[in-house]
Design brief:
Helix content: 40-55%
Number of strands: 0
Radius of gyration: 23 Å
Order of helices and strands: HHHHHHHHH
Structural class: mainly alpha
Oligomer: single chain
């Protein structure tokens, strides 16, 4: 009997919503949220092959310095079991999410245009050449592990440069890979001709 028929018959009915239930630990992992939906079923199938302890360990958020290890783990597990297209898309999604998590943890906030400029994705305007070169230099200092030292008196400029330094630290922490294992979505600034 549906709700309308129950109301007409004078029967008190309660509606129960059905939630999709994912068995095991998959729904408690960050990857489970990223790869929700039928299209990503093969990623869940890979997860389902892990022993229970490994599945449980993946429910915990990585600590500082563990993000690239988690990306390497997924690379090792997904590459032989997915099509090349799905594997590439899955790793792009994972590495992008992990990088965002680390940036948020370090409180890195840069305008999108500055991030793109630091990564060599867009050229910078001639008027901002001096600031752009300074930001790149500070970014590289962060990547090299050098401490940040304020450059100017302008608080807005100082915030931007401090964020560029943090961005360099984030990228350095996530790109400790050989050329063969480097996550596809991280670009090494030194390799990009500006």
């Amino acid at each position: 009997m549906n709700m309308i028929q129950a109301a007409i018959a004078g029967v008190r009915a309660h509606y129960r919503a059905r939630n999709a239930v994912v068995p095991g630990y998959w729904g408690m992992t960050m990857e489970g949220g990223l790869f929700a939906g039928r299209d990503w079923g093969p990623v869940y199938d890979v997860f389902a092959t892990f022993d229970k302890e490994t599945q449980r360990q993946l429910t915990f958020t990585p600590e500082d310095g563990e993000w690239s290890e988690r990306a390497k783990f997924w690379k090792r597990e997904l590459q032989p079991k997915l099509t090349p297209e799905m594997y590439h898309e899955a790793m792009m999604k994972l590495c992008g999410w992990y990088a965002g998590c680390v940036r948020k943890r370090l409180n890195v906030r840069l305008p999108v245009s500055i991030v793109a400029m630091l990564r060599g994705e867009v050229p910078y305007a001639e008027e901002s050449k001096e600031l752009a070169e300074l930001a790149i230099s500070i970014y590289q200092d962060g990547k090299a592990g050098k401490p940040y030292e304020p450059v100017g008196e302008n608080p807005a400029q100082n915030r931007l440069l401090k964020a560029a330094h943090k961005q360099g630290r984030v990228d350095a922490g996530l790109s400790r890979h050989t050329p063969q294992t480097a996550p596809v979505c991280f670009v090494d600034l030194e390799a990009v001709a500006l």
